[in-house]
Amino acid sequence: MTTISQYQGKVLVAGATGKTGQWVVKRLLHYGIPARVFSREREKAYALFGDSVEIATGKIQNAEDVANAVKGCGAVISALGSNAYSGESSPDEVDRDGVKRLVDEASRAGVKHFGLVSSMAVTKWYHPLNLFAGVLTKKWEAEEHLRSVFSGAGRTYTIVRPGGLKDGEPLQNRLHVETGDRMWSGWANRSDVAELLVVSLWAEKAKNLTFEVVSEAEEQQESLEPYYGKLA
Ligand SMILES: NC(=O)c1ccc[n+]([C@@H]2O[C@H](COP(=O)([O-])OP(=O)(O)OC[C@H]3O[C@@H](n4cnc5c(N)ncnc54)[C@H](OP(=O)(O)O)[C@@H]3O)[C@@H](O)[C@H]2O)c1
After folding, report:
1. Residue 37 is inside which H or E element, if any?
2. What is the pLDDT of residue 9?
3. Residue 180 covered by a domain
4. Are 46 and 25 in contact (CB under 8 A)?
């Protein structure tokens, strides 16, 4: 069933072929919001989404590819994530430089809103996860860049910092949200992270927020929009 949202515009999803990115696309389509996906592999994107989305093929390392991908989009949601210690899928190239490049090209193209999947504990340089090529610190640097570029002149951002990610349907759990990066453990469904970022497209209270999220208990939710009211 398609629900009509209050958001008008096309959304570029980076990292759309990933587990969270696929949920971002699903939830955009659920609300009838047109999506373009940015992927290194057209075949992989087409196998996942068929003709339901536009596909922009390219590398996150290539500024021209990124500029072409964001052209004409009103918003960007990034669920990019590294999966190699070094090389083109490393934290340096994806979580930091890739996201920064996407932010810069989006800003240049007049994109109005940027939603980012980051991570709990990004401010904790001493966290054990940082042994993976400093991944948390790279995400933190990308966050800082996004906040500086998208917090003025008619631009907005929303940064979601989930705990450990799990699979499962959206809106099945009561969430706990807070700011300040004070939590050390917890998990969240990728689908709820996606839903929070899709809702951030139109929820005024979601604008210019950075927050952490974990699941608290199994409990069906009608909407995740009220969580932004708790944070704002
Ligand atoms: N796993 C956790 O428990 C956890 C917890 C907190 C936060 N996070 C963060 O949440 C985000 C989403 O996680 P996930 O599990 O959904 O990630 P995922 O399934 O690994 O997806 C990552 C996405 O990034 C893309 N990507 C990787 N390297 C790329 C490159 N060089 N150029 C372009 N695209 C590239 C992948 O594309 P391909 O399909 O082409 O490889 C894929 O679409 C990540 O930033 C992750 O670090 C994860």
Report:
1. strand 35-39
2. 96
3. yes
4. no
Residue nearest to ligand 1 atom 48, measured at CA:
165
The answer as to whether 76 is a domain residue is: yes
Ligand 1 atom 19, closest CA = 18
Cβ atoms of 32 and 97 within 8 Å: the answer is no
Token duo for residue 209: 């927020």
CA 31 – CA 148 distance, rounded (Å): 29
Cα 111 to Cα 73, 105, 199, distances in angstroms: 6, 9, 17
- Number of folded domains that form the chain: 1
Predicted TM-score of the model (pTM) = 0.98
Low-confidence ranges of the chain (pLDDT < 50): none
Q: Is ligand 1 within 6 A of the CB of residue 40?
A: yes
Task: Check: CB of residue 63 under 8 Å from CB of residue 100.
Answer: no
What is the per-residue pLDDT for 4? 65
Residue 69 lies in domain: 11-231
Tokens 């300040």 locate to 180
**Could you write out the DSSP letters of every residue in 49-117?**
HGGGSEEEE--TT-HHHHHHHHTT-SEEEE-----SSSSTTSIIIIIIHHHHHHHHHHHHTT--EEEEE
Is the beta carbon of 96 within 6 A of some atom in ligand 1? no
Centre of ligand 1 from the C-alpha of residue 118, in Å: 10
Q: Residue 111: which CATH number?
A: 3.40.50.720
What's the pLDDT at 67? 98
173, β-bridge pairs: 218
What pLDDT was estimated at residue 131? 93
